[in-house]
Design brief:
The protein is built from nine helices and three strands. The chain folds into two domains: about 70 residues, Fe,Mn superoxide dismutase (SOD) domain (Helix Hairpins, Orthogonal Bundle), CATH 1.10.287; about 100 residues, minor pseudopilin epsh fold (3-Layer(bab) Sandwich). It has about 200 residues and is mainly alpha-helical. It binds manganese (II) ion.
């Protein structure tokens, strides 16, 4: 069973004007697909690893044969992270609510304080990587991870994420990362984020 692109719940142009259709098409169809292709290629001669779920592979990278460990970390992480990212985006963002809203208020005081901290982490992140809202030891935490490193590999459960690789925004925003981050806040799927929180 080979890994495949997950179905998107919206069309490429559904997140306009925040995320433009061409970026979505290339990000999903080329970048995400490339991680999947390289993951499948890495696993080709490793039936034991083929029988593990993607989560199992990423949670226990140490048990993946050394020869393919980095490829699984990078490309398995790329597949996991992008699949997660598409799910926490939506054409109409709405507002954070329910248990996640309460947890954010408890940890950060109020939503705007959280938004400010998260935005700052994303704006100041150096290089290619992601900023995540995770649950770590039963507490919400904003973390920055390089490359396609994955929170579940360090026992943290993802709630929300922003892709800060230039391929995520360069066509529309070029060097204006701050505008991309601001646009991302407008297309967050808060229902899905809360589901992530409740399912931990
Ligand atoms: Mn990406």
């Amino acid at each position: 069973m080979k890994y495949e692109l997950p179905k998107l719940n919206y069309t490429f142009n559904a997140l306009e004007p925040s995320f433009d259709a061409l970026t979505m098409e290339i990000h999903y169809g080329k970048h995400h697909q490339a991680y999947i292709n390289k993951l499948n290629e890495a696993l080709k001669d490793y039936p034991v690893e083929q029988n593990k779920s993607l989560e199992e592979l990423l949670v226990s990278l140490d048990s993946v044969p050394e020869k393919i460990r980095l490829a699984v970390k990078n490309n398995g992480g790329g597949h996991f992270n992008h699949s997660f990212f598409w799910r926490v985006l939506a054409p109409t963002s709405g507002q954070v609510k329910g248990e996640l809203a309460r947890a954010i208020n408890k940890k950060y005081g109020d939503f705007n304080s959280f938004k400010e901290l998260f935005t700052q982490a994303a704006a100041t992140f150096f290089g290619s990587g992601w900023v995540w809202l995770v649950v770590n030891n039963n507490e919400l935490e904003i973390i920055s991870l390089p490359n396609q490193d994955c929170p579940i590999s360090q026992n943290q459960q993802p709630i929300l994420a922003i892709d800060l690789w230039e391929h995520a925004y360069y066509l529309k925003y070029q060097n204006r990362r701050a505008e991309y981050i601001e646009a991302w806040w407008r297309v967050i799927n808060w229902d899905e984020a809360e589901k992530n929180y409740k399912n931990i």
